[in-house]
Amino acid sequence: MKELRTLFPYIRRYGWSYFFGVLCLALTSGSQILIPQFLRVAVDLITSGRFELGRIAALMAGLLGVSVAIAAGRFGWRSFINGSAMKIERELRARLFDKFTELQPSFFSRSQIGDLMARSTNDMNAIRMAASMAIVALFDGLFMTVAILIILFAQQPGIAAVAIIPLPLITMMTLFLGKVVRTMFRRVQEGFSDLSHQTQEIFSGVRIVKSFVKEGYFLSRFRGANEEYQARNMRLIRVWGLFFPVVTFLAGLMTLILLRFGGEAVITGGLSAGEFVATLSYLEMLIWPMLGAGFTVNLFQRGAASLARVNAILNEEPEIRSPERPVATMPSSAISIRGLSYLYDGGEELALRGVSFDVPEGSILGILGRTGAGKSTLLRLLLRMQNPPRGTVFIGGVDVLDYDLKTLRSAFGVVPQDTFLFSDTIRANIGFALDEPDEQFVRHVADVSTISRDIRILPNGWDTQVGERGVTLSGGQKQRVAISRALAKDPAILVFDDALSAVDTETEELILRQLLTERRGRTSIIVSHRVSTLATADRIAVLDQGRLIQYGPHEQLVREEGFYREIAMLQQLAQSRAPHEKD
Known about the structure:
The chain has helices at 8-13, 15-47, 53-102, 105-109, 113-120, 122-131, 133-155, 157-163, 167-204, 206-211, 215-268, 273-285, 287-314, 375-383, 405-410, 426-430, 439-448, 452-455, 475-488, 505-517, 531-534, 554-559, 563-582; strands at residues 335-342, 352-359, 364-369, 393-395, 398-399, 412-415, 493-497, 523-527, 539-544, 547-552. The chain is of the alpha/beta class. The protein folds into two domains: 4-314, ABC transporter type 1, transmembrane domain (ABC transporter transmembrane region fold), CATH 1.20.1560; 330-411 and 529-583, Rossmann fold.
């Protein structure tokens, strides 16, 4: 009940729908309970020898009316209760998705995507069943059990007391079964999450799998996960499957008891044939509440196990959020870093160590450094993808921790190192940041990134579908689409995180030349391993092991002894050798 209580606010929101659903359910169950009474009258009428067609016709008409009431009631409770449960599922899934958008990138780095997908789909189905059919089975079972027992004890108390002796055994078994089912179903859902994760990972890396000829290895891994998921399901099915035969056996015992004592009462005249048939019908109707009890426990425990998994996400507190009184406007795009040191959670060494520099508004900052020098960490802290220490990162003279997150991130246009495109058209990907993309402006930024010349030769031009993650485009084409996407946002701060690595030198020079023409007071940050790319920057920051070891314009750094000059000379030597080697 601890986990199921989280459903109560949703159920209260649709309280009237559930109320009318329960009324319809009561109409259905109450009408079903009347049927044995019609049988009692009919059988007694026939066995008495006073068979009258008119009275039989009246009973048939009554049964027809009861059937209509049952059909109307079933339609009503399905519409009200199942409909409300589907709305709850929709709201809960939307809330879960909202939570995903709020959580910091570190949450996704420690979570399996397949597991998150399973919680958003398979677990939601179990929760919907707990909010619908479990409630139906609970109410219907209680209503019919209480009503039937009242009727039986009112008409034949002695026979009823003997016939229901197996009922307590069913209750005890149901309570025991509930604890076992919840544990086993949680393991089933975890198995489904693992299976989903492996499937998603294989599909995402299918080109790597094929290029390394590892299909057999991943097929073996998938087969193992699939068999484990099947084994967990089978263990649950065996336990759950045992419940129904036992209930059926105990129900058969009740019938045997009735035949023994009820048959004797009919022979001695203490019970009419019609009353015997009605009592037998009521005992058969008790089988559903007994089965329904296990059904109810099964659905509630499955729902509780799934709610525990979903609530674990919903209760996750975002580490990165807007302050209570945020700064809603950015005075300028000038950037200032003051003594910035940063240690990742669980890390042993600082990713950045006392970094300080200034980037005036409208200038270009280049960043160079070895892999792991802290370049990407610096960019994440600027965008607050990670929270920097207070008093270390400023934009427009304001600490980034004081900005509204939307205000801060809206000022940036980022071309990431790992280019991601959506499975949509090139036009839609370039205009991604715009609510109503201007066709002329979209074409202009495509010209700046030079992707427009490739678009002209693509089969469907601007309407070419790029496939999942842009799989149909080359690396250079994806980078240039991403550059156009960032430019279309017309940001105050443009960030290139090694965004020209897949572009040839000639195209790179053309893009940078056009970007310089397009500056219009925009602050830019270019991370690159190419000195030729960084040479256009006003200032260049050289990072090594998290420290700022050099800072200044290209002309100054290329004359100084240090890492920047070494890289410049090595790249110049490589370029001078390339034409000779080609000849």
